[in-house]
């Protein structure tokens, strides 16, 4: 009976020893980033006691300043080094094309556990096995997040082509960083009460033709104690002239009157130059930093799920590292990195909405009085300037860091916009003679209070307008408008405004109530690729 028990035990022991020796005589390959110019690793042989028996252990030390991928390999941290220990009488550590390679040999005592397992043997509680290493999975998930994730969407700028035609939903235009491409559909009453329909096509020429050749990551500025983050963030697109080109917008708009008193067709074309925009997501250093730290967020989450504070918790043991690696593989399959990427984008929207900016625009227009495309003539020119104040630095009027990081918080941000516009030699239907046209010059001063969140906003504006029709005395009036814009879907906005104007003493039929609506759709290259 004793012999029958001993033989199976002996067979099991021989098999265990065989696997033990095979596992411990195989080289261990550790990938390093970058794989060139690596510092040497220290190596040696130590004696240690395990279960009352003295055993020989081969030790390799690699500086922790090197970024390593050693999923499934037992290690510990001592000072400034990663330390790898294997039960063996001898061994060596060498540098290869991929990183470090550790090889050890000898006759280990059977009482100590295996110190090494291969990456494919790492247990993944969820049963996920993609065949890729953890580092490769993180890289793949990050690339997919950049491709499939959200874009920073702070509404679409007003079209300069419609500004010169006086058909924007609000008279006071906002200076902002333009989209690479945008279109606007409008249905509105013009200043003379005639119904107009039209379309505008807008683009940022520099972004459209040269945007893919601009490597904005090349301008990454690392943290510096002597330079505040707000200053660094405006330097990521280096050079004032480069940023001005990036933010220059060209617009081409056309409208058509639909009433018997106005069958004219109009074309407006112009440029808008944004000299500075503190809310430009392309120069948002915090967004860049957030996206670059997605792998650290994944690692912290994995350790938190295991009951630790974060990846730097001093209670972490070598066995916990293998569990955290397995947990990270599972979190990747649950789109954790994509969700964190989208959260970075949403935080950037709350941080940058309504920030201060300044822009100047100029445009020309042409008119066909009968709507025939062959009879277009010059319709004058226009020039305007807009200054947006975002209340930076005033407590309570900007989102705090806690509110930005809180996904459930929708802090409302105000902005105040000042606008001046000069329009000359504009051809318009004569207010005194039906079916006839005349010319006028006008000046406009306006102020607009806008407040809201990235998805919607409310607007209240007041405008003072002075006009002079050819052969008539100058006149003026005051206009009040209440409006709103709402994001229907990604890059698609509905703008709506309703208002009224005071009566001009020399112009009959003025003093109307009006309604204006427009649909804005835009697209752009994702910032901070």
- Return Rg in Å: 34 Å
Strand content: 35-45%
Overall body shape: elongated
Summed over residues and divided by their number, the pLDDT gives a mean of 79
N→C terminal distance: 72 Å
Helix content: 10-25%
Number of strands: 20
Count of individual helical segments: 11
Low-confidence stretches: 1-25, 107-128, 217-221, 232-236
Structural class: alpha+beta
Largest sheet, if any?
Answer: 12 strands, antiparallel, barrel
Strands across the major sheet, in which order?
Answer: 9-10-11-12-13-14-15-16-17-18-19-20
Structure explained in plain terms:
The chain is α+β, with helices and mostly antiparallel strands. 23% of the residues lie in helices and 38% in strands. It contains 11 helices and 20 strands. The protein has helices spanning 2-25, 134-148, 160-165, 205-210, 229-233, 240-246, 285-292, 294-305, 318-333, 336-352, 401-405; strands at residues 28-33, 42-50, 53-63, 67-69, 76-78, 81-87, 90-95, 99-105, 181-189, 195-203, 249-257, 265-277, 357-368, 377-389, 413-429, 437-453, 456-469, 474-489, 492-501, 513-523. The strands form 3 sheets. The chain has a 12-stranded antiparallel β-barrel. A 4-stranded antiparallel sheet has the order 4-1-8-7. A hairpin with a 2-residue loop joins β5 and β6 (81-87). The longest helix has 24 residues, at 2-25. Mean pLDDT is 79; it is low at 1-25, 107-128, 217-221 and 232-236.
């Amino acid at each position: 009976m004793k012999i029958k028990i001993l033989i199976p035990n002996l067979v099991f022991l021989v098999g265990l020893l065989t696997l033990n020796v095979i596992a411990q005589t195989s080289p261990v390959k550790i990938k390093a980033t970058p794989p060139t110019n690596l510092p040497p690793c220290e190596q040696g042989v130590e004696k240690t006691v395990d279960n009352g028996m003295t055993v020989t252990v081969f030790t390799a030390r690699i500086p922790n300043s090197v970024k390593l991928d050693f999923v499934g390999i037992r290690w510990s941290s001592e000072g400034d080094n990663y330390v790898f220990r294997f039960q063996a009488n001898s061994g060596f550590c060498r540098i290869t094309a991929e990183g470090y390679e550790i090889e050890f040999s000898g006759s280990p005592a059977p009482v100590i556990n295996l110190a090494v397992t291969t990456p494919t043997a790492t247990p993944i509680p969820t049963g996920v096995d993609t065949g890729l290493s953890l580092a490769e999975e993180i890289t793949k998930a990050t690339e997919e997040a950049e491709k499939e994730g959200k874009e920073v969407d702070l509404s679409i700028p007003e079209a300069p082509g419609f500004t010169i035609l006086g058909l924007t939903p609000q008279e006071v235009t906002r200076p902002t960083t333009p989209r690479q491409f945008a279109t606007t559909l409008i249905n509105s009453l013009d200043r003379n009460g005639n119904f107009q329909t039209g379309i505008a096509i807008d683009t940022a020429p520099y972004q459209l033709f040269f945007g893919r050749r601009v490597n904005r990551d090349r301008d990454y500025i690392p943290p510096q104690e002597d330079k505040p983050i707000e200053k660094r963030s405006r330097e990521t697109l280096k050079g004032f002239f480069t940023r001005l080109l990036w933010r220059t917008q060209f617009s081409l708009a056309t409208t058509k009157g639909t009433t018997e008193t106005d069958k004219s067709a109009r074309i407006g074309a112009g440029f808008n130059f944004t000299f500075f925009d503190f809310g430009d997501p392309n120069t948002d250093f915090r967004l860049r930093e957030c996206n670059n730290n997605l792998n650290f967020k994944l690692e912290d989450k994995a350790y938190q799920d295991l009951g630790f504070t974060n990846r730097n918790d001093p209670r972490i043991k070598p066995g916990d590292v293998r569990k955290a690696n397995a947990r990270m593989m599972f979190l990747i399959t649950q789109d954790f990195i994509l969700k964190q990427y989208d959260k970075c984008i949403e935080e950037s929207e709350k941080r940058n909405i309504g920030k201060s900016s300044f822009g100047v625009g100029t445009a020309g227009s042409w008119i066909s009085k009968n709507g025939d495309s062959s009879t277009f003539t010059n319709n004058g020119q226009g020039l305007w300037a807009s200054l947006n104040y975002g209340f930076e630095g005033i407590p309570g009027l900007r989102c705090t860091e806690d509110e930005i990081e809180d996904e459930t918080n929708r802090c409302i941000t105000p902005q105040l916009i000042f606008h001046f516009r000069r329009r000359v030699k504009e051809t318009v239907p004569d207010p005194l003679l039906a079916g006839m046209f005349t010319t006028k010059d006008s000046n406009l001063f306006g102020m607009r209070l806008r407040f809201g969140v990235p998805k919607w906003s409310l607007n209240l504006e007041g405008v003072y307008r002075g006009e002079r029709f050819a052969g008539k005395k100058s006149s003026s009036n005051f206009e009040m408008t209440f409006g709103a814009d709402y994001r229907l879907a990604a890059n698609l906005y509905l703008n709506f405004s309703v208002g009224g104007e005071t009566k001009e003493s020399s112009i009959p039929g003025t003093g109307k109530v009006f309604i204006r609506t427009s649909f804005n759709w835009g697209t752009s290259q994702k910032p901070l690729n």
